[in-house]
Design a protein that fits this description.
The chain is an alpha/beta fold. The chain folds into two domains: about 5-230 and about 490-515, P-loop containing nucleotide triphosphate hydrolases (Rossmann fold); about 255-475, 3-Layer(aba) Sandwich (Rossmann fold), CATH 3.40.50.880. Helix content is about 30%, strand content about 25%. The strands form six sheets. Strands 2-9-1-10-11-12 form a six-stranded parallel β-sheet, sandwiched between helices. A six-stranded mixed β-sheet has the order 15-13-16-18-26-25. Strands 19, 20, 21, 22, 23 and 24 form a six-stranded mixed β-sheet that branches. Helix 1 (about 15-30) packs parallel to helix 2 (about 55-65), helix 1 (about 15-30) crosses helix 14 and helix 6 (about 170-180) runs parallel beside helix 7 (about 200-215). The radius of gyration is 23 Å and the shape is globular.
Length: about 525
């Protein structure tokens, strides 16, 4: 069985996911066959693996950092919150059921069996597994039924590093309190890491000494506050991306607005725009932003119906339609694509108490929500020369993935795609077209300056993205840019930079000795 190292945190959002990513890159650089693992993840950002299974987007980034193919075994349990109804439970990459919190804790035995089996399969293929916990291990009300923190450490006898976010305040109290509440399980915690530090390290040093005296555990390193590094977050838009004014963006001529939906899912679809030299990316529901943008995007949603009703109840739909009337391009991705159609039917009450609801009526499609979930990687090409100056790209291969529980009918045919998953989950069998044969599937719809698609990750395709941006430049009377941003390379550079910072600020010799000891 592989050796293991576990990263836990004093709470959610302290930086566990990215620290695991950085460590995976460091160990990969050392020639170690390393892989990430998170037993249970609660996130609306998800990724589809080659085998057609759904895992947390953070684990996909960690696998990329480790230079290995993402696998469902890296995240055997994924919980996708869907509002008052509870969560959609995804086990081994496939939808298991929808559960309320009390129902899920009664499900812990089955979940634990899935966790241990996935870890065993993963450990047979690698030398080292870097494990991420969830939230805080000191949630004592949940300790009996949890399957992701100390239960994993006990099962594997894994050493644990505890991460705290000093920017939130109270980091020493959080360290000390976590140790105190864990009783015997605290023995698995070998050291601390302080993340997001601003200020003079000399002022902090007395605290580092005192926490070691009080707990018997050293602080391995203090990582400075670095802001948004452009790497995928687990399940929240970094606060830096939500700021309405950034002085460094003032000279960017194009403004792209992504609607900040309540149940926004896979917002990482739009990360590539952050790297473009002429694009200011904003997440907003402000009518002024929407009506004065150069392009508006309606993103995916874990609850399309509720988000659509929210847009209507708050008059945001009027701003969207006014933007379209002004000639501003409007794009819908997945759930956003569904919202742009004429109707959404929900015959099984999957997302709401309504059997049908009017869409925004901007595309000539209708969508029926189904119990079956389509999850697969896809290869696509534009079905002809279409929309907003994207000419001459009809034969360019695009890559992406689908995650949706509805099918749309009507004026469909913007893209021709093939589903590439090696062995799709059983619930998607009837919709699967293999890479080696079968007729292409039609996807997407377009009407005037509005278009939509089910393809997540479509903006990761560099030429497609630049063509789209250049069409906005032409519309604004600007000269198109010829340079292409290599998004994959830039993301890899960010991972290397992040790994270098961890090497600089954390005692890696201590970690190596701890793993080997």
């Amino acid at each position: 069985m592989a050796k293991s190292l576990m990263i836990q945190g004093t709470g959610s959002g302290v930086g566990k996911s990215l620290i695991v990513s950085g460590l995976c890159r460091i160990f990969s650089d050392m020639g170690i066959r390393v892989a990430p693992f998170k037993a249970q993840n609660m996130a609306l950002n998800s990724f589809i693996t080659r085998e057609g299974g759904e895992i947390g987007r953070a684990q996909a980034l960690q696998a990329e950092a480790a230079r290995v193919e993402p696998s469902i075994d890296m995240n055997p349990i994924l919980l996708k919150a869907s509002g008052e109804a509870g969560c959609q439970v995804i086990m081994n990459g496939r939808v298991h059921s929808n559960m309320r919190a009390d129902e899920y804790y009664g499900f812990s035995k089955e979940a634990w069996n899935a966790v241990t089996a996935a870890y065993e399969r993963l450990s047979k293929k690698h030398d080292l597994i870097v494990i991420e916990g969830a939230g805080s291990p000191a949630e004592i009300n949940l300790s009996k039924d949890e399957v992701v923190n100390m239960r994993v450490a006990r099962h594997l006898n894994s050493p644990v590093l505890l991460v705290g976010d000093i920017d939130k305040g109270g980091v020493f109290a959080s360290f000390y309190g976590t140790i105190g509440l864990l009783d015997k399980d605290a023995d698995y915690i070998r050291a601390f890491i302080i993340n997001k530090f601003r200020g003079d390290l000399n002022i902090l040093k007395p605290g580092l000494n005192m926490i070691k005296e009080k707990t018997g555990r050293p602080v391995l390193g203090v990582i400075p506050y670095l802001g948004d590094m452009g790497l995928h977050e687990e399940d929240g838009i970094p606060i830096e991306r939500l700021k309405q004014f950034n002085p460094f963006e003032r000279f960017k001529p194009l403004k792209v607005v992504v609607l900040r939906l309540r149940y926004i899912a896979n917002f990482t679809d739009f990360d590539p725009f952050m790297y473009e030299p002429d694009v200011e990316l904003i997440y907003s529901l402000n009518e002024s932003d929407i009506e004065n943008s150069d392009m508006v995007i309606v993103p995916g949603s874990k609850n399309t119906v509720k988000d659509l009703l929210f847009l209507r109840d708050h008059g945001i739909d009027k701003s969207i339609k006014l933007a379209v009337e002004k000639g501003i391009p409007l794009i819908g991705v997945c759930g956003g694509y569904q919202m742009l159609g004429k109707k959404i039917y929900d015959p099984y009450f999957i997302e709401s108490e309504y059997k049908e609801i009017d869409g925004l009526g901007l595309l000539d499609i209708e969508t029926t929500l189904e119990r079956v979930k389509t999850t697969c990687q896809v290869e696509a090409e534009m079905n002809g020369e279409w929309v907003n100056g994207l000419m001459g790209e009809s034969h360019t291969k695009l890559r992406g993935y689908e995650i949706h529980m509805g099918n749309s009918t009507g004026d469909i045919g913007l893209f021709k795609l093939r589903r590439l998953s090696d062995s799709p989950p059983p619930q998607a069998d009837h919709q699967f077209t293999s890479a080696s044969g079968g007729s292409p599937i039609l996807d997407g719809s377009q009407k005037d300056n509005v278009w939509g698609t089910y393809i997540h990750g479509i903006f990761d395709n560099d030429n497609f993205r630049r063509n789209l941006i250049n069409s906005l430049r032409i519309k604004k009377g600007l000269i198109p840019l010829e340079g292409i941003v290599d998004y994959t390379q830039l993301r890899d550079d960010s991972l290397n930079k992040w790994a270098g910072l961890i090497r600089e600020y954390i005692d890696m010799k201590f970690i190596e000795d701890m793993i080997n000891g």
